[in-house]
Amino acid sequence: MSHQNLSVARFRRIVVKVGSSLLVDAEQGRVRAGWLASLVSDIAGRHRDRCDIMVVSSGAIALGRSMLRLPSGALRLEDSQAAAAVGQIALARTWSEALSGHGITAGQILVTLQDTDNDRLAARVATMTSADLLVLLSDVDGLYDAPPDRAGSRHLPVVERITPQIEAMAGAAGSEHARGGMATKIEAGKIATTAGTHMVIASGRIDNPLAAIDRGARATWFVTPANPVTSRK
What we know:
Elements: E1 13-18, H1 20-23, E2 24-25, E3 30-31, H2 33-48, E4 52-57, H3 60-67, H4 77-100, H5 118-128, E5 133-138, E6 143-144, E7 155-156, E8 158-159, H6 164-172, H7 181-194, E9 198-203, H8 209-214, E10 219-222
Parallel strand pairs: 1-4, 1-5, 5-9, 8-10
Antiparallel strand pairs: 2-3, 6-7, 9-10
Helix pairs in contact: 3-4, 5-7, 6-7
């Protein structure tokens, strides 16, 4: 596969996973509205190009926690459940209002898998819906062969096969504060690519993150030969 074919704009059905730390300002306890608007602008652009878009969004507990004024630190199970119940309503409204500004009507699908985290959940949603691309927006801009802040660490732009060596890199490159880190993203990559879905890990710490990928922003693509990337018509 030609690496120059790797751009978000070339895919027809995309799942975008958005983590809580990207969507919600933890200190302020509210949605990062400016960043969300930029992402939704990217989504609207793909939608106008007749691309199917699904979003796997975290943030319900973070929003509910703020609304219920729960203390910082680890939450008891019942407090997490209460925060999720309250925050889910706010989260759905947030996405609906943001998308409606572009004339897009949002629908919601609730999926729960007890044995998985949000990265793997997004991968399973992508495979169940026959998506050809999964975008994991992250605190980091892809996979490195060592912790990204270590001198001499090397960024990998493309992973054509997830080998034990790649998995070892993921263990060494876990710089995210969110639950899961890079290792679960590699697990998501295995789920997605095995089922014929390409995956890209890219930074969500910038505005218009989907457009940035297509402009050449640093990212790591996990490709699958089961679904060759071709030019869209």
